Task: structure prediction
Amino acid sequence: MARSQYAVIGLGRFGSSLAKELIQLGNEVLGIDKDEEMVDELSDELTHVVVADSTEEEVIRSLGIRNFDCVIVAIGNDIQASILTAILLKDIGVKKVVAKALSELHGKVLEKIGVDRVIFPERDMGIRVAHQLVSPNLLDFIELSDEYTIAELAVPRRLSGMTLSELDPRHKYGCTVVAINKADGVIIAPTAGDKLEEKDVMVIIGTNEQIESLEREVIG
Result:
């Protein structure tokens, strides 16, 4: 999986868990927060950390943030700072801006100013979001335990028409397709002869490594 550059603005509980998981997934992460203590806590865990006010354009520009693949606004309780930061990031041309919303109304405002994806932390854990950012075909990700994960993967066009026996995820990658969500319904416990079609969603169980291997080598 390609190594990408992420910036996480706001290193509270959600932002720090997201940033640390992005590092675990092999990416470079710049952490930004106004709180020096929070920045110090993560100085050994992230690629770079900076104490900065994300609403100040000159400061943000000086960090070269426009060149990052994705910037996540994970600011805690300051809705105004969150919105101003998101506007600034869009204005200076950041490729992809993801922002945490503190309420439905906050989320609507973020959408209206052009944020690419709005996250509601009470629904979306930082770890889950990290996996979804790194793997665009990964629609959902739930850790069942330290070892096992359930993931939803969208079927790309090039696998359309392939049967599960041809894909053979259990033998090749060690993970199991437990369901296929199709336009006309869900197939629970699919058989080897069940065919995959573009835009189907496979529900897969396995270890993180097994699912990442399948996603990297087959889904693309």
About this structure: The domain at 136-219 is CATH 3.30.70.1450 (Alpha-Beta Plaits). Residues 79-91 form the longest helix (13 residues).
